[in-house]
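Notebook B, p. 112. Complex prediction, attempt 2.
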Amino acid sequence: GENVEQHPSTLSVQEGDSAVIKCTYSDSASNYFPWYKQELGKRPQLIIDIRSNVGEKKDQRIAVTLNKTAKHFSLHITETQPEDSAVYFCAASLGNQFYFGTGTSLTVIP
Amino acid sequence: DGGITQSPKYLFRKEGQNVTLSCEQNLNHDAMYWYRQDPGQGLRLIYYSQIVNDFQKGDIAEGYSVSREKKESFPLTVTSAQKNPTAFYLCASKRQGNTEAFFGQGTRLTVV
């Protein structure tokens, strides 16, 4: 099966700085990579996703990059704001199964 | 709210009792999933179902059971065989293929 590793497990940044979260996956057949944000006590919600035929995707302050050769993908958040504070999960999809990373707790310090 | 509903939000049970968590979706999704979330361990797959009357074990299925009698519903039973059942449980659903999964709001189960 697929194995997804996510780093770092915790991340603190000053408001306005950038945050980067990295994930690696093991199965080269994985072809869909979503990122979810989970605020305290709430459900995970999709913030951005990328498919294996694309190397980069951007949505306002959020971007995701994918390196299929190295089997890693990253989430980039620019100009961070306090409301970005949450736990972020990466995932790799193989068929109809999602394999999640262990999460990154991001704290944006005002 | 994404059309997927879990109930109840909080659940307390005595040790040794079975308990069933509800998950209902009105998104017409074929695939449904149950995850367990523990601090520092991310989301671990318990069971998933890709079609009515069919389901597959995930990575941590021991002590759990499911049914999928209707497309809309995928209840999870936490049995007395589950050694450490206290956790946050998340249900999700999605269309077939590489598409977004929608999560319910979760059920926090505490066994005392």
